[in-house]
């Protein structure tokens, strides 16, 4: 069942985000595909974050977080914030530079979800990057969208 569960979920295509939070001098980012839009009125988003993720206490204490939606070609950024450090990758002004879109959120609620937490944020500001294609994660690897011609 466990393997079939993981295999089934690997067949769900997802965009890739980096969730980031700051508390005083400490700032952390984490790659997350468990991201969804939740509500339009009010504007809410939700993220599934592992209970042991180091970003979780920061996010809960600061009551704020930022979601950067990664674009095609930002595989190294995703790898970096998933614990595989890459040269020259970091946060600028609390978000990923060159992201497709950035959502600045106030923490609305944190719900239990097994070994993860369901983190709900109210979107307070949106920054739109240059339009483009997203980075996609599917079948345990990074993929590119192919636009039908
Ligand atoms: C495609 C993909 C999707 C994933 N989706 C999810 C998901 O939806 N939910 C989930 O819980 N996990 C997800 N993960 C796993 C998650 O990204 C890793 O487990 C992550 O390393 C755990 O983060 P952490 O908060 O414990 O922080 P750390 O492991 O401490 O941080 C992660 C990495 O980011 C770097 N970093 C952190 N802050 C900064 C900073 N301010 N400047 C520069 N570098 C910094 C660290 O050096 C480290 O290499 C996903 C992983 C991948 C590859």
H-E string: HEEEEEHEHEEEE
Q: Which percent bin holds the helix content?
A: 10-25%
Q: Helical stretch count?
A: 3
- Class by SSE composition: alpha+beta
Query: Which ranges are low-confidence, i.e. pLDDT below 50, for 5 or more consecutive residues?
Result: none
| Gross geometry | globular
Q: Your description of this structure?
A:
The chain is of the alpha+beta class. It has a single domain, classed as Roll (Pnp Oxidase, Chain A). 15% of the residues lie in helices and 44% in strands. It contains 3 helices and 10 strands; from the N terminus they run H-E-E-E-E-E-H-E-H-E-E-E-E. The longest helix is centred in the N-terminal third of the chain and has 9 residues, at 2-10. The radius of gyration is 15 Å and the shape is globular. The model has no long low-confidence stretch (mean pLDDT 97). The chain binds flavin-adenine dinucleotide. Flavin-adenine dinucleotide is lined by residues 16, 27-34, 48-50, 53-55, 78, 80-83, 85, 90-91, 137.
Main features:
149 residues, alpha+beta, Pnp Oxidase, Chain A, seven-stranded antiparallel beta sheet, three-stranded antiparallel beta sheet, 3 helices, 44% strand, globular, binds flavin-adenine dinucleotide, Split_barrel_FMN-bd, oxidoreductase, NADH-dep_flavin_reductase
Could you give the topology of this structure?
Elements: H1 2-10, E1 14-15, E2 17-23, E3 26-32, E4 35-39, E5 44-50, H2 55-62, E6 64-69, H3 75-80, E7 101-113, E8 116-128, E9 136-138, E10 141-143
Antiparallel strand pairs: 1-9, 2-3, 2-6, 4-5, 5-8, 6-7, 7-8, 9-10
